[in-house]
Design a protein that fits this description.
By secondary structure, the protein is an alpha+beta fold. It has one domain (2-86): Arc Repressor Mutant, subunit A (Orthogonal Bundle). It has helices at residues 2-10, 14-26, 31-38, 42-54, 77-86; strands spanning 28-30, 58-63, 66-71. The chain has a three-stranded antiparallel β-sheet. The radius of gyration is 12 Å and the shape is globular.
Length: 90
């Protein structure tokens, strides 16, 4: 049940839905690339990324002086399926 509530909290914001869509399509993206794609401030992007990471929806990796985010590969298959079907494709 905890994972389902995590998914629903993670999907409760249109920018977070868009982040999931972008990461599904691109695999991983830097904060600056996500900010540009979303058309919002870096502060707002970072806040949404932080929320999603705290909910274990995302994981991050620092490289080349940037932080890159991707969907958490440890999400259960049923939750991945919900994310896949709930988030519109480009």
């Amino acid at each position: 049940m905890r994972q389902w509530s995590t998914v629903f909290r993670g999907l409760a914001n249109p920018y977070r839905l868009r982040i999931i869509e972008l990461l599904q399509r691109n695999g991983s993206m830097s904060v600056s690339a996500l900010t540009e794609a979303l058309g919002i401030t870096i502060k707002n992007t970072s806040r949404n990324l932080s929320i999603m990471q705290n909910l274990d929806i995302l994981e991050s990796e620092g490289r080349d002086g940037h932080v890159f985010y991707r969907l958490n590969h440890r999400l259960a298959d049923d939750i991945r399926q919900v994310l896949h079907t709930a988030v519109p494709k480009g």
